[in-house]
Write a structure and sequence with these properties.
Elements lengths: L1 H44 L16 H7 L4 H33 L4 H15 L2 H11 L7 H8 L9 H4 L1 H26 L3 H9 L4 H12 L1 H16 L3 H6 L11 H11 L3 H25 L2 H4 L8
Helix pairs in contact: 2-14, 3-4, 3-8, 3-11, 4-8, 8-11, 11-14, 13-14
């Protein structure tokens, strides 16, 4: 009897310890199959000459040396930098302005809710439909929305080839409109969490609206701003889908980013090994940028426990 009771007592801690692993196991399996294995395969592939023949041969670092001798690389890196930096800066600025306007100046008003909902619409529209809308707006023929509008008002006499003169600007604009909502939601939630008593105390002390924003609201947004900056910048650096649908990387290579170039090399030209090597460069750049912004936001200081001084 005592032995049975003892076994039961010893069995409970073991069962209790294994339960978390049982819950995690299905998700860990999915991560391993769909993330870790493809990552390993990409790394291995980058050291081979795998192409349409599907007969890989180990070539060492040949693909990586080829990248740095690729005459397209300077323009592609420049395109990537312009696209990522401008998209991040403008989308972050607009998300911040919208969040402060709707959660501080217009807090609780129906107009603020409707305005935020309007900004959510582009992010929930299917990508193909969304890109079709932008292609219609900037269609280079007389049937295009912008050309038709400008001709009606006598601004231009002949249709403007928008995708020839300002392809990168159109790509950045389309990207910004579809990504503002993500940052807006996080920043709005952070501002909404600020106690009203802080605002009331500031007004009693005679603080201006500018002081409330800079001294109360902005310090509260440090965590979400760090997350949005890092996640969106990595997203922009590795983004290619909208660009591929909207311009295909053209005209020439004016809107080709590093990620799109990796896709084109791997899936259009069937240079899978070279495409994998280019994609690893994208990963490396994203990793360096993450470390830089963690340092810039002083992440170590942010995660330290608060100290209560006596």
């Amino acid at each position: 009897m005592e032995n049975a009771a003892s076994r039961q007592i010893y069995k409970k801690p073991f069962t209790k310890k294994i339960y978390p692993y049982l819950f995690i196991a299905p998700f860990a399996l999915l991560v391993f199959v769909f993330f870790i294995l493809p990552a390993i395969a990409t790394i291995v592939m980058s050291f081979t000459d795998l192409n349409a023949s599907m007969k890989p041969k180990f070539v060492g670092v040949t693909n990586f040396t080829r990248i740095f001798s690729d005459y397209n690389l300077p323009q592609i890196l420049w395109n990537t930098a312009i696209f990522a930096v401008l998209s991040l800066a403008i989308s972050l600025l607009f998300a911040l302005i919208i969040s402060i306007a709707t959660q501080y100046f217009l807090k609780g008003k129906l107009s603020a809710v409707l305005y935020r909902v309007l900004w959510l619409i582009p992010s929930i529209i299917p990508a193909v439909v969304y890109v079709t809308f932008w292609k219609y707006v900037f269609d280079p023929t007389e049937e295009g929305f912008l050309n038709s509008l400008m001709q009606q008002f006598g601004i231009v006499s002949d249709p403007v080839s928008w995708f020839t003169k300002g392809a990168m600007a159109i790509v950045i604009l389309a990207t910004i409109v579809s990504t503002i909502s993500g940052g807006m939601i996080l920043l709005s939630a952070a501002i909404n969490s600020i106690p009203e008593d802080l605002y009331k105390a500031a007004r009693v002390d005679g603080a201006s609206e500018k002081s409330v924003i800079t001294k109360i609201i902005m310090p509260t947004l440090k965590w979400p701003l760090m997350y949005i900056t890092i996640s969106e910048l990595i997203g922009f650096v590795s983004s290619y889908f909208f660009i591929m649908l909207l311009t295909g990387g053209g005209p020439m290579r004016d809107t080709t980013t590093l990620s799109l170039y990796a896709y084109q090399q791997a899936f259009n030209l069937k240079y899978y090994g070279y495409g994998a090597a280019v994609s690893l460069i994208v990963v490396f750049i994203s990793f360096i940028l993450t470390l830089f912004f963690l340092r810039l936001f002083d992440f170590d200081q942010m995660i330290r426990p608060s100290r209560i001084e006596d």
